[in-house]
Amino acid sequence: MKNVFPQAFPVFVALLFTGRALQAEPASVLIAEGDLFYAKMQANEALKYYLPAEKLDPNNTRLLVHISREYRQLMSDAADQAEKIRLGGVAVDYAKRAAALAPNDPEAQLAVAISYGELQPFEGNRQRFDAVHIIKVALDKVIELDPRNDLAWHVLGRWYKGLADLDPFRRGMAQAAFGALPAATYEEAVTCFEKAIQLNPARPIHYIELGTVYAQMGRKDEARRFIAKGLDMPDQEKENAATKREGEQLLAKLR
User: Fold this and answer.
1) CATH fold label, 148-255
2) pTM (global) more than 0.90
3) Where in the chain is the domain with CATH 1.25.40.10?
4) What is the DSSP string of 124-157?
5) Alpha carbon separation from 199 to 115, 142, 177 (Å, rounded)
6) Residue 1: which residues within 8 A CB-CB, separation 6 or more?
7) Alpha-carbon dihedral of residues 232, 236, 241, 247, nearest 10 degrees?
8) Residue in 78, 119, 113 with CA at minimum distance from that of residue 98
9) What residues contact 149, with CB distance under 8 A and at least 6 apart?
10) CA-CA distance, 21 to 16, in Å (whole number)?
């Protein structure tokens, strides 16, 4: 037993001073280290550097946008709904801070739209109704600032699809409780996904989502073609996994 503590002590000291060492690094160095894990889609590791960097540079818009994405990734991995809501709320808060600091930064506005979109399915009706309008305002701003942003067009396509999916009864219930929802059609969603593909033909989620809209429209041949094409493409982001699972399930039903 005498040797246990002396052997463990160097490890303990190393762990103790790791946090202090990170705090002693300049924000730029911490951000650069975090970016390495950001590129690898390793959210927990990236946050070990990003969060100390935020304390040193709290008004760094790009850093806040990156932190928001990392919390969205943690949200997607969480199994517990309460934890998903908590992590999604943190992602929204960081995105809103970034947009408040730099309202004309398209990436900050896009972070707002995506973060609200990820959190929306887990919230109550009032929050979901409000999110519909917040997301659209943010996306319109992104496209105004950066019309070649394929992800903005993709998220806008999902926005149109989500509203087009609503039947008259649910629309009427929402209007009676909170006010009128914006009009939306599947054709508008198709236009957005086609634009996203035109801008970035290497992103598989564009094809899968376009195929999903065609399925809703009853255009099964086109649905199968676009979903299959997206499924055959290599992933670009961690979020592709969930979209591909949904695409596989839909394609199986269409066969």
Assistant:
1) 1.25.40
2) no
3) 26-131, 148-255
4) -HHHHHHHHHHHHHHHHHHHHH-TT-HHHHHHHH
5) 22, 15, 39
6) none
7) -40
8) 113
9) 106, 110, 142, 143, 199
10) 9
The DSSP 8-state label assigned to residue 120 in this structure reads G
- 1: how many CB neighbours lie within 10 A of its CB? 4
Nearest to 154 by CA among 193, 203, 198: 193
Q: What CATH number is given for 26-131 in this structure? A: 1.25.40.10
Q: State the residue for tokens 């490890």.
A: 11
Cα–Cα distance for residue pair 250/235, rounded to 1 Å: 18
Cα 41–47–48 angle (5° rounding)? Answer: 120
Cβ count within 10 A of residue 176: 8
Give the model confidence (pLDDT) of 200-215 as tens digits: 999 999 999 999 999 9
Tokens linked to 56: 């040193």
User: Does residue 195 carry a pLDDT above 60?
Assistant: yes
pLDDT of residue 135 exceeding 60, the answer is: yes
Q: Determine the 3-state secondary structure of 54 from DSSP.
A: helix
What pLDDT, on a 0 to 100 scale, did the predictor assign at position 1? Answer: 41
Position 11 scores a pLDDT of 45
pLDDT in tens, 15-24: 444 555 555 6
* pLDDT value at 55 more than 70: yes
Provide the residue count of the chain: 255
Token pair for 47: 């946050």
For residue 28, what are its two tokens? 């730029």
